[in-house]
Amino acid sequence: MKRLKAIIMYDGFGFAGYQIQPNARTVQHELEKVLTKMHKGMKVRVVASGRTDAGVHAIGQVIHFDTALQFPITRWQRALNVQLPGDIRVLSVEEVSSDFHARYGTIGKVYRYKWGLGDVESPFKRHYVVYAPGFNPDIQRMREAAQLFLGTHDFTSFCSARTEVIDRVRTIKRLELIENDEDELHMVIEGDGFLYNMVRIIAGNLWEVGIGRRDPSEMSEMLAAEDRKRAGKTAPAQGLYLESVFYVD
Questions:
Q1: Which of 15, 47, 81, 151, CA to CA, is 20 to 30 A from 59?
Q2: What is the DSSP code string of 168-226?
């Protein structure tokens, strides 16, 4: 038996999320369905670095699974891609030690959130970028507010009230607002870990700062309150991308 690590990407629009759910199409189900077929009906469990919600995309999701197949490592990527649906693709596969764990071994992640700043919503991007026609956000104010999230804080105010994790202290190493040439504004955030809906709630509050509904200083007040009711709305799912996951070398 050997353990394989794979980096995958997927378009979240057609999925009810990553994690298997009853009567719903999920990324995990599609992966395990293909692997079970390759293993002649033997169930293969896939473990990911973390789940993503319905509509959320991934560019660098990491998974692992165990296999007894005597398959050359160089053939795994193609073997999976020819059987997976078109909205999931395997970028790389490598053999790792048996103690590697895609979820519990993570030491950091990067997420990207995308807003469209054009006056007209592109029909080709509506599932991948969040538009708010008529708003012209003050990006400098958003950057000012973003600085207040850097460092180590209790993020209770910025996670879903349904979060079951007791320790809600996380460290944010980078939080940038980047304009690109396609009339888009991207929020790139890197941290040692993220709570349920944490990135989308931060994005939602930064957007409210940008359009003048909140003052940048309120971010510090929200963090100190440790109360989800004190923070603003959760940003829509389709703008969020899991970009990369880090592990100890």
A1: 151
A2: -EEEEEEEEEEE-TTSEEEEEEEES---TTHHHHHHHHHHHHHTTSS-TTHHHHHHHHT
